[in-house]
Amino acid sequence: MHSTIDPRTGSAAPAPSALRTGRDAAPKLARLLTFRTVSSRIPEEVETDQFDAFIAALPELFPRVAAALELERVNGHGLLYRWAGGSAETGDARAPAVLMAHYDVVPVEDPAAWEHPPFAGTITDTSICGRGALDDKGALAAVLEAAEQLLAEGFTPARDIYFSFGNNEETAGDTAAAAAALLAGRGIRPWLVLDEGGAVASGAFPFVQAPLAVVGVAEKGILDVELATEDAGGHASTPNRMGATARLARAILRLERRPFPAALPEVTVEMVERLSAAAPLLPRLVLGNVRRLRRPLTRVFGLLGGEPNAMTRTTVAITQLRGSKGSNVLATRASANANIRVAVGESVASTLTRLRTVIRDPKVSLHVVEGNEPSPVSATTNAQFALLEETISGTFPDAVPVPYIMLGGTDARRFTTICDAVYRFAPFRMSAADRASIHADNEKLGIETFGEGILFYRALMGAL
Predict the structure, then answer these.
(1) Which domain-ending residue is among 313, 346, 371?
(2) Domain range enclosing 18
(3) How many CA atoms within 13 Å lie on the side-chain side of 334?
C-alpha cells in the first residue's frame, strides 16, 4: 500500500520508513504548533492574527500543494482545498473524496504544568510536542505532507480530493457546516468523507493485547441542558428547607443514581465480534458469542465504567454549577449545566423526556442550551469501509480494524447530509496516556507515529 509509481522508471518505488518520514516532516508540524489558534465562543478571546499567520505559513511549508491545489476560504478562516483528479479528463464521473481536519485548539489551563511550553513546537528525540499535536494539527499536517510527497512524484488522483480544514471545531462552530453547504450547492455528493475520531489504540479494551484501529461509523449526539431552580432567597442564617441549591442538588443526585438504560447497539456488537479474534481463548469464547450473550455483556460493559460504560448508554455529566454570589446569601436561583452524550437510537426529545421523569420535580426547569441529534450510522459492508480497512492493514499490520460509535463530537457530522459514507479515524498510534493528553497537559505526537500517519494518507490517496 505504501509504494508509489516512480515516474522516471514506471515501476513501484518503495516508500520510506515511518521514522524517516516523520523526522523529515516533524519541523513542519512543529511550526504549525507555534500558532495559538485557540477557539472560543467569545469572539474577543480569539486571536485572529494567529489564525491568519497559520494560514499564511501553509504555502511556505507545503509549496507544491499551494501551487497545484485550488484553495477557497470558507466562513472566514476555514480552508477548502480541491485536488483535481484525472477522472475529469477521462470522462469518468467519480464522486470526490473529502479528507478533514481542524486546526483550532482548546485553551491551555496551566502552561507551567507542561514539560515543554505548549506553543513552542518542541521536537525531542521521539516526539513533536505542543497543543494540537494530536487534536488535530497532526492530522492536518499529515494530509498536506502526504499530498506534497505525492505531487513531487508526479501523482494525480483518480478522483477529485477535497481537504476541508476547520477553524472552530472545538467550539462546535459552523465552518464545517458551511463547507458542506458549499459543496451541496454545487451538486457535489462525496463518495467518502474521513475526519478525525478513532485511532490505533492500545490498551483500549480488556483482554485484547493487539492494538485496535477503531473507525468511527457514527457519533453520539451532544446536548447541553441547563437545570435551574428558583427560591425567595434571603440570609444564610435562616435557611428554609429545599431552597434553590438543595432542590437542584436533589435533582442532580437523582440523575446520578438512575443512569440511562444500557444497551449494546449493533455497531458495538460488530466491534466486539471483530476484536474477539485478537483476545485469548477464554475471553474469545465469550466475546465471539456477543449476540447470544448480549444482555450479560451489556451489564459487564456498564460495570467497567469509563469508555466501555459510555459505549452502552446516553451519559449525563454535570459540568457547571451556579448559585449565590455571596457566601452568606441564599440563592434566589441555582443552575447546573448537564453535558449529555445522546446514544445512537435515542433523540434529543426522548432524552429530555427521561430527564424530567427521573428528576420528577416540576420546580426544576430544563432549558436546552444547544444540541444535536446522534449522527446516522455509516455502513461497514461497502467499498469505502473496505478501502479504509485495507489501508489500515497496510500501514498498521498488527492492528485489528473495528467499527465503533464515537463518544465525542467531530466536524464530520456536518457532512452526513451530503454523504452516506462518513468515517472518523486519525491514523496515529495512541496509548491510554496519549489519549488522556488530548485537551490536557503535555500533548505530543511521536515522530514515528506521525510518519505512519503520513504513509496512511499517501496510501489512501493513492487508492482513491
Answers:
(1) 371
(2) 4-217+375-463
(3) 24
